[in-house]
Design a protein that fits this description.
The chain is mainly α. The chain contains 12 helices and no strands.
């Protein structure tokens, strides 16, 4: 099961979408701001989702999720908290002032994540969805970071994406072996809902990427 899960990084829905090389190499500032506007609107707060999901889990998975949560919280340092890092980027780019509406696909992604984490009957699906975020974020974050750097944003401003290009590699390995492995080893039946959650999150992400490409294509972009 772990091998199947890790293979989602290579061939899961939405992986290696041409949107991201475009952002890295060609998108102008207006297009990058539009993309980030959608991404910020679809951000449900990873640390809060982890906190909701870890309720009443066995000791070993719970401890790993606590370590993950502590990293997301900047290990007690407010400047290192991941959520505010993204908020500072949004403030710098004045995303709140943008008149563009949030597309339905981005809202659906956020609603999915909150719905899974907030309902205990979907705890395993939430574990799969959170795990696949950690697994696949490093396939996208470096492209966004490169695009922001190309457009002249300072390192401190784009730190959220710089950090997630590398940190989530370690987070993913720990999640797979300290959360997924013991859960599935103890109860093989939970593999199915974990897989469901992972695929739901990837499918929602793929729908977002396709919608973003349509938006840019209407402006003349070629992928």
């Amino acid at each position: 099961f772990i091998a199947w899960f890790e293979d989602l990084k290579r061939d899961g829905p939405g992986q290696y979408d041409p949107l991201f090389p475009y952002l890295a190499e060609k998108a102008d500032l207006a297009q990058m701001r539009w993309f980030l506007h959608q991404e910020v609107a679809g951000e449900a707060g990873f640390e809060d989702l982890v906190a909701l999901t870890q309720l009443r889990l066995p000791e070993r998975p719970k401890l790993e999720m606590a370590r993950n949560f502590w990293d997301e919280m900047g290990r007690g340092n407010a400047r290192g908290m991941h959520g505010p890092m993204l908020a500072r980027l949004a403030a710098h780019l004045e995303l709140d002032a943008m008149p563009d509406p949030t597309v339905a696909e981005a809202l659906a992604l956020a609603n999915l994540m909150v719905g899974l984490a907030a309902n205990r009957r979907y705890a395993y699906q939430s574990i799969g969805a959170l795990g696949v975020i950690e697994l696949t974020a490093p396939t996208r974050a470096p492209f966004v970071d490169a695009g922001l750097r190309r457009l002249g944003l300072a390192a401190g401003t784009r730190h959220y994406f710089t950090l997630h290009a590398t940190l989530d590699v370690r987070h993913s390995a720990a999640w797979n072996h300290e959360v997924l492995l013991p859960l599935v080893a103890d109860n093989p039946a939970c593999a199915r809902p974990i897989a469901e959650g992972a695929l739901l999150r990837l499918w929602c992400g793929a729908r977002c990427f396709e919608r973003y490409r349509r938006h840019f294509a209407a402006m003349g972009a070629r992928f």
